[in-house]
Please model this.
Amino acid sequence: MTYFLVKLILSAQVTLTDLPEALPLLRLNINENKSKISSMGGYAIAESLVWGDSTSQILKEEFDIIVLADCVYYEEALDPLVQTLQCFTNTITKKPTMYLTQEMRDSEVQKRLWTKFFEKLNEIFNVEQIPEEEQHKNYRSPDILLFKITKK
Model:
């Protein structure tokens, strides 16, 4: 699952991450949208990120904002995802704000995974749910939760 690491320098400088095998498609999408991105003064790149791999070079970078979308989908990924988020917030100068969006599905497996992930997240981070009425009216949905996450 892709999530976005945003580095703000005058205009949006975005690093999109995914598993190595997904990078060709991610880079193709960036290339297809390059003129639109640059017309707004932005820049986007794609980098490999395997959750839980503490040797990844991208973990040495510092980001202002990290956006995660639908990242909670199987139990084996929970600890590596939390470890990776910890690495991104253990920086010298910047303490990024993270935003997590998650579609809540009705399956018992998904509910159990979400509860377990949320418990792990709350041990390390401040997690604040952004009420639906405070979200953009065109992009909010009652079955999609949005959270702001910061380091404790």
Notes: The CA atoms of residues 126 and 150 lie 5 Å apart. The mean pLDDT is 87. Helices lie at 23-32, 34-39, 78-89, 108-124. The two ends are 26 Å apart (CA to CA).
